[in-house]
Structures are given as structure tokens and as C-alpha cells.
Design brief:
242 residues, 8 helices, 5 strands, SGNH hydrolase-type esterase domain-containing protein
């Protein structure tokens, strides 16, 4: 008998300059041969162009696959976050047949932390998580990258930052399929099967020794009638004191 071979999970990474080297990093972390990873990098573009480029890849994607979308840095720098998030939401709504992981835009360590650009980064993350909360097939991931994960000029990630991001994204991908595998299918039962099972349980309960009527020799005191109770109380009040 010929064994059925399982198709590998397709993992597509598409994004701006921060996604460079992400696909190779995922291949190292996802060592299981069940994953087929590839990536497309488009430096200097926003989420509108990134999501448009991903449409061709998603035609053959299913719930057994994942697409990683990494962008937003250029939109934040151009004050174009609202428009880009609308494009991203439309992309998510039109691709419910597969799993989507969205990577948030990192802080700009080449600028002051209190700059208006970094304030917009914080607002971008908050709005993105709120928009995507209603979609069960979407996971918004904020990699734990700090200033030491970036090059000296502070805009692009260094080797350490790419490694940290690849580990976080790999864990999110594995967690997506682990969550699906935990679902336990229940056996469907027709109405006739349910009725037969209820009848069987009823017969077993009737045949059980514990179901027999228990007798007791203890005398049970009958409750006093309300009229007798009131009469006895009234007669006690009429008795003369001695």
C-alpha cells in the first residue's frame, strides 16, 4: 500500500527592508521539513504595495499555510498610516482562507524616542492591534527588539535583531498550527442514536440494586393539623393561673 505524503506548510514572507533575511532565518528555526519557506523583499514601499504583491501568492494558500506581512515603517515616515491600515484590513478580509501574521513597525532608533515619528509608531501599533482583533486568522506580532538589535545608525536591524525576529516569527508560526491540532473532533450522533442511548441508560438504572425501594421501620410523626394547633394554644391561654 502506498503511503500518503503530507504536503509541506507554505510560508511566504513579504515586506520592506526589515524583512530582508527573514525567510532564511525562518528556514533555520523551522527545521522540520514540513515547512516550505520563501520571501519577497520590497525596500522603500508601503503596506499598500506590499499587500498588492502578496495577492498572487495567496491564490494557492490554505489554512495549512502562512503569509507573513512586514511593513509600515515607510508609511509612518510619510504620515500615511491610516490609509495603509485600511489597505491592510481589506487585504485581511479578502484572504480568510489562510493564516496571516502581521509584524508591527519597529521604533526608529535613529530618532529621539520622544519624536513625533516614534509617537506615530506607538499609535500605529495600537490601531493595528485594535483593527485586527476581530479576525481569528490573523496574528499581530511585535518582535522584542531593542536598540542593541539595530545598526549604529539605528534604522535597520543588525544580525542579532534579525535572529531575534526570526525566532519570534517561527514561534508564532508553530503556535498557529499547534493551536489547530489541539481541536478534538466530536462524533456526530443522530436523534435515533441519542434516543437509544437514553433508553439504555434508563434500563440500566432500573435494574440497578440501588434503584430498589428502601423500607424503614422508623415511625414517622404525622404533622399536626393547623386547627388542632390553634385550639391547643387557645385553651392554654384560658387556663387559670394556680
Amino acid at each position: 500500500m502506498q503511503l500518503k505524503t503530507l504536503k509541506p506548510h507554505k510560508v511566504s514572507v513579504i515586506g520592506d527592508i526589515h524583512a530582508r533575511g527573514c525567510a532564511s532565518g525562518l528556514s533555520v528555526n523551522l527545521r522540520n521539513t514540513d515547512y516550505d519557506v520563501y520571501g519577497i523583499v520590497k525596500p522603500g514601499v508601503g503596506l499598500e504595495e506590499i499587500t498588492r504583491s502578496a495577492k498572487e501568492d495567496l491564490k494557492c494558500f490554505t489554512k495549512q499555510d502562512v503569509i507573513v506581512v512586514w511593513g509600515g515603517t515607510n508609511d509612518v515616515g510619510r504620515n500615511n498610516t491610516d490609509k495603509s491600515q485600511r489597505h491592510l484590513q481589506s487585504f485581511v478580509e479578502n484572504n480568510k482562507q489562510t493564516n496571516i501574521i502581521i509584524i508591527t513597525a519597529p521604533h526608529r532608533y535613529d530618532l529621539d524616542m520622544t519624536s513625533c515619528v516614534n509617537s506615530e509608531v506607538v499609535s500605529f501599533k495600537r490601531k493595528l492591534k485594535k483593527r485586527m482583533k476581530i479576525f481569528s486568522h490573523v496574528n499581530v506580532l511585535d518582535p522584542n527588539v531593542q536598540s542593541e538589535h539595530f545598526t549604529k545608525h539605528g534604522l535597520h536591524m543588525n544580525y542579532k535583531g534579525k535572529e531575534e525576529s526570526a525566532r519570534a516569527i517561527s514561534a508564532a508560526i508553530e503556535g498557529t498550527f499547534r493551536k489547530e491540532s489541539h481541536a478534538t473532533p466530536l462524533q456526530w450522533k443522530s436523534d435515533s442514536m441519542v434516543d437509544n442511548e437514553e433508553n439504555r441508560c434508563l434500563q440500566e438504572s432500573l435494574q440497578s440494586p440501588e434503584a430498589a425501594t428502601r423500607s424503614s421501620a422508623r415511625l414517622v410523626k404525622m404533622p399536626a393539623h393547623l386547627r388542632d394547633f390553634l385550639y391547643q394554644g387557645h385553651s392554654r391561654r384560658l387556663e387559670p393561673k394556680t
